[in-house]
Design a protein that fits this description.
12-stranded mixed β-sheet; globular
Length: 177
């Protein structure tokens, strides 16, 4: 599999996540920022509609609620819908994807499709203009339709390790699940 996109040390982007419920066709939107530092630090800062910070380090996930000043901490494997995030950091996770590249004069579209029928990840699409990533769309399988669109993508910007750990206040109540 072509691994050109994943050749980075850090990744930052703004995102909009849209979830359309199978039951009522209504869509909910979430916006925020994503920060990744290889090999194993990922931070989702959800800003709207309700602020949350999701910190993934190794196989642990911490979800911080600033309104309650609480952190729910658990193993990432209990969140089946979050496993696709490993595509960014784990070469083994990407080995279960097949890629198709579509090129035009000005842009490249790389479509990664899951080779596993039971995977949460249905499709991962990268749109590039020249060498610059314009956007990334992630489509997840399941009853509800998820679409996560990332814009303002930057690779290899300077992100300190302290940034990830300082995002959740030390005085927050920790609940281990």
């Amino acid at each position: 599999m072509e691994d050109e996109f994943f050749d980075f040390e850090t990744f930052t982007a703004s995102f909009t996540q849209t979830i359309v419920s199978e039951n009522d066709d209504s869509a909910s939107k979430t916006t925020g920022e994503l920060f990744i530092s290889k090999p194993n630090s990922i931070l989702w800062h959800v800003k709207l509609p309700t602020e949350r910070i999701v910190l993934i380090v190794n196989n642990s996930i911490s979800i911080y609620d600033p309104d309650l000043n609480q952190v729910l901490k658990s193993d990432i494997d209990i969140f089946e819908e979050a496993k696709w995030i490993r595509v960014f950091t784990d070469r083994d996770a990407r080995s279960y994807l097949d890629s198709i590249t579509e090129r035009s004069d000005f842009s490249t579209r790389i479509i990664y499709k899951s080779l596993l029928m039971d995977s949460q990840l249905r499709e991962f699409v990268i749109d590039k203009e020249g060498d610059k990533i314009r956007s990334i769309a992630i489509y997840l399988s399941g009853k509800d339709e998820f679409e996560i669109t990332m814009e303002q993508v930057e690779l290899d910007s300077n992100i300190s390790d302290d940034f990830f750990y300082s995002s959740i206040p030390a005085d927050a109540e920790v609940i281990v699940q």
